[in-house]
Each structure stands twice: as C-alpha cells, then as structure tokens.
Design goal:
There is one protein chain. This protein has helices at about 1-15, 45-55, 60-70, 75-95, 100-105, 110-125, 130-140, 160-175, 180-190, 200-210. About 65% of the residues lie in helices and about 0% in strands. Helix 7 (about 130-140) packs across helix 8 (about 160-175) and helix 8 (about 160-175) packs parallel to helix 10 (about 200-210). The protein has about 210 residues and is mainly alpha-helical.
Length: about 210
C-alpha cells in the first residue's frame, strides 16, 4: 500500500517538476543545464536553435514546425536527434511527458536529453516494468553504470543533474532496491544547492516514505 501511495504522489510531483513548471532547482530557473541559443550545434543548426528559442517563449507548436524543418532538410544524425528530442519536449509541454515518447525514442541513442525525457515519461506511467526502463535509461545508458554520473543538459530541459539522480532514486525505491535508492537520493542532496521546498524535496519525501 505504501508503494502504491508513493506512485500517486510521484505522479503529482513529476507533473509539476518535469514538464517545465518547477522553474529548475530553486524555483528561479537555476537548474544545472547548459543552454546557449547563440552556440551553433554541429553545422550551425539554425532551425533547431529557433525551435528551442520558441519553446522558451511557450510557442510549442511553432517550435515543432522548426524541428520538422530540420528533419526535412537532409540532417546529420546529430541534427535529426536534436530535432526529434525538441519535438518530444514540445509535445511534453503541450500535454504530458508520455506524449513525447515516440520522439524521445527516436533520439535517445544520441541525445541524453531525450533519455531524460523518456525516463520521466516512464516514471509517470509508473508500473514496475516502467521503473526498470527508467533504471536502464538513466543508470545504464546515460550514466554508463556509474552511480555518480553527471547529467548536463544540452538544451533547456529544466531537469538538473540532481533531479536526474532523484528520478533514479525513485525508480530504485519502486523496484525494492532500497540501498541503491538511498545512495541516489543522498547524492542528489549533495548536488543540489537548495533542497527545501523544491521539486527535489517533493520527490525526496516520496522516496523516503516508500523506504519506510
């Protein structure tokens, strides 16, 4: 029963925290992502840059149009992954993270941001097999099985390194791997300059409740 309640609470916190409403770690947009609209990616991918600029303004449908231009313009593998990742996050902001899953799937082999988006969607789906997918995406694929991996977002996903570790902590707790869950939660706390009252705090309280 405790774990079922935890799933319900997490769905609420992730809806706030991983679809752009948390404003980052401290509520003021200070997540540890690296994002510079003026820095060209690969060959000066203007349409991808324009797409993310439109997302910053909340113009998600217009952003998708820009990302589709990339896909239609004989892109490199990296550019195509960036565009599919952008569509995934745009779809997520328009609805829920699960709405971006098909595009995250297309991008995840190249884009760590897509891995995080896809992991967030699986967290919201919340079955045990979904939690196992989260562990695979974050710990194995993104982190290369290093428990102290570092996630630095290439684009402004509004998900910090600490939040990635908190997501993994939840997935471990939900699959009964309590020791690993505590390790990830403690590490997330080390990484975050601010904890109380943040999305991280919300997720942490759910994880602590599940570990009782």
């Amino acid at each position: 029963m405790k774990r079922h309640l935890g799933v319900f609470l997490l769905a609420l916190s992730l809806t706030v925290g991983l679809t752009g409403c948390s404003g980052g770690v401290n509520g003021e947009g200070d997540s540890n992502y690296s994002y510079d609209i003026g820095t060209p990616i690969v060959r000066g991918n203007a349409f991808n840059d324009q797409g993310w600029a439109l997302m910053e303004k909340g113009q998600y449908d217009s952003a998708i149009t820009q990302f589709n231009k990339v896909i239609a313009d004989n892109p490199t593998d990296d550019e195509k992954a960036e565009a599919n990742n952008g569509i995934g996050w745009s779809k997520a902001y328009l609805g829920q993270l699960k709405d971006g899953m098909p595009w995250f799937e297309k991008a995840k082999d190249i884009s760590d941001d897509a891995k995080i988006g896809l992991a967030g969607a699986y967290l919201q789906l919340a079955s045990r097999s979904d939690m196992e997918q989260v562990i695979d995406l974050i710990f194995k694929q993104l982190g290369n099985e290093n428990p102290h991996f570092k996630y630095v977002a290439r684009r402004n996903t509004k998900v910090s390194d600490a939040e990635a570790h908190a997501m993994l902590a939840y997935a471990y707790a939900a699959t009964g791997q309590d020791e690993l869950a505590r390790e990830q939660l403690d590490y997330a706390k080390e990484l975050s300059p601010v904890w109380d009252g943040t999305t991280l705090d919300q997720i942490g309280k759910v994880v602590e409740f599940m570990l009782q």
